[in-house]
Design brief:
Order of helices and strands: HHH
Largest sheet: none
Number of strands: 0
Structural class: mainly alpha
Number of domains: 1
Length: 66
């Protein structure tokens, strides 16, 4: 796989790799895993809210009126 970055992004990746004592490839791979994990979590939360919101709507309304 070839990853094409802007000069700014490549420099930022290089700086971070130096900070962590890792290769640019290792830092990029970590960033991708983090990005995917965050999106998976957001999706899971969204799905949970889709199920739980209707289930607890009456309770939420009652608490909101107190």
């Amino acid at each position: 796989m070839t990853l094409r970055l802007s000069d700014e992004d490549d420099e930022a990746l290089e700086r971070q790799a130096r900070r962590e004592g890792l290769s640019k490839q290792a830092v990029a791979a970590k960033a991708i895993r983090l990005y995917v994990a965050e999106r998976d979590l957001a999706s899971d939360v969204g799905e949970a809210l889709d199920v739980l919101t209707p289930r607890y709507q009456r309770l939420s309304n009652r608490l909101g009126s107190v």
